[in-house]
Amino acid sequence: MARHDQRVGYGLPAMLAIGLHVLVVIISMLSLPSRDSDPTDASVVQATLIRAETTTDQALRNEDDSGGAESSEDDSESEEPSESTEEPSEPEEPPEQSEEEPEEQESVDQEAAEQEREEARQAALAEAERRQQEAERLEQQREEEQRRREEEQRRQEEAERQRQEEEEQRRQEEAERQRQEEEEQRRQEEEQRRQEEAERQRQEEEEQRRQEEAERQRQEEEEQRRQEEAERQRQEEEEQRRQEEAERAAEAASGSLDRAIAGEEEAIANARQAEEAANSFQNLVKRYVEQAWNVPPDADSDTVALVRLRLLPTGELVETNVIQSSGSDSFDRSVIRAVERAAPFREMRDLPPGAQRRFREFNLRFSPGDVS
Amino acid sequence: MNDSMSIPYLIMNASGVVQVVMFILILASILSWIVIFQRSFVIRRAKRAHQAFEERFWSGIDLNELYKETPSEQETVGAEHIFRAGFREFNRLLPKTRNPQSILEGVQRSMRVAWSREEERLNLHLVFLATVASASPYIGLFGTVWGIMGSFQSLSMAQQATLATVAPWIAEALIATAMGLFAAIPAVIFYNRLSSASGKLLGKYEDFAEEFHSILHRNLQGRGTSEEA
After folding, report:
1. Has residue A32 been placed in a domain?
2. Does the interface ipTM go beyond 0.95?
């Protein structure tokens, strides 16, 4: 039996325990950096006073210039309009193309219609001719029959085969001649028709050629116009760029002057801002004092006390003096107590130095109803 | 910010009292874990030894042989210890008195003594665990309260009370509570576990003592009747 190691020492447990703690510490160290990265973003919201008023737009731009960011901004600004002028010209093209296509289609349609019309005309003409020919043939047949009847009569009358034969021959010859004449006529007519058709075809071709030429001319004109426009745009851009460069050069040349103007305008802006801040500060002080002021019940509405405040730059109250007593001791005391209760005016620190100097010492006029 | 909010930085920059509290808590935690490991080993071994001894005891071996097998020094633990104490007392009293009642009383007494020694051995340091479990949250809370007190004192001096001025103080203060809980939770869990395990073992020892006592009693009764006869 393993009785020799019945006693359990403390060495191993101690090592185990310390190892466990070291492990826990290491794990916490390993996992914490990633966990810490989240709360770093949770910064407290800090509101800062933004200048509410600017002297002019030019002042702003000059400030930007002093910041050195203007040139790039202007470039981007000048590029943007040119792009915007180019952009509308580009989408014009697809509609033109789409207009041309219908025109071509229309011309093709017209041609087809014309051809059809032509064919119809031709067919009508041919039919009319055919009808004429048939009428002529009928007439001729009638004539022939008459002649034949006459000859028959003659033959019957003469009753001589030879003459009959001769007549027959003659008739045949005549028929031959007539046929030849008819054929000639037909040929002539066909010739005429062919000529007419050729004429018509020539005319059509000429028409087509004219249309094509017109089309081509229109296209060329459009091309020219487009090129001219592009040329104009390019020229304008160049003009702009040249002007900008000139401006920039001028600015660079008169940079010191501009900067001086900018500085002045900035100073004006600062002054106005300071004034604004001072006004707001004055209002704040007034409000605080009003809130802190317990108006004595026995005060008349026309009692007036003038109090002089002296403040430290940090807004702490140094001293208050009643310059112009209201005549009532309790009123004066309440006024001083109100000012002391309202102090310190921490907003003093946010004021620009110029305004701070103004508010180091100032007067407040108290009367029940308003503080000014 | 990242640096100033890390736990080691917070611990190093805590105020003196909070640092002392933290040190106490770390110490308590380490000690409680030492106790936890040591007790776990002890109880596991005691269980195994008890099982082995019971097997041997009930295997039909002669009690004299069993007694002689074990070394005479006071090294035995658990049920074996109780058996040896009882059997030695029995053997010592047997030649001196003929009254079986007094012999059994003596055996019982000596076995009770051995049992209480075993109880003391098994429950050693468990009280410390209980103390850590119940006290360390309060110690940690004390550190937290102290740290928050300091944070408010510093807040009164600051012109602007932002979260950034308060946060490090409160984080540092809360670390103390975290440490208190870190020490207390394992202590509570293992105190319950270990005390129940040792209680079960002590119950088994008691059962064994009763059984052994009944065996001796049977033995004496047999002898008494045979001598009388």
Report:
1. no
2. no
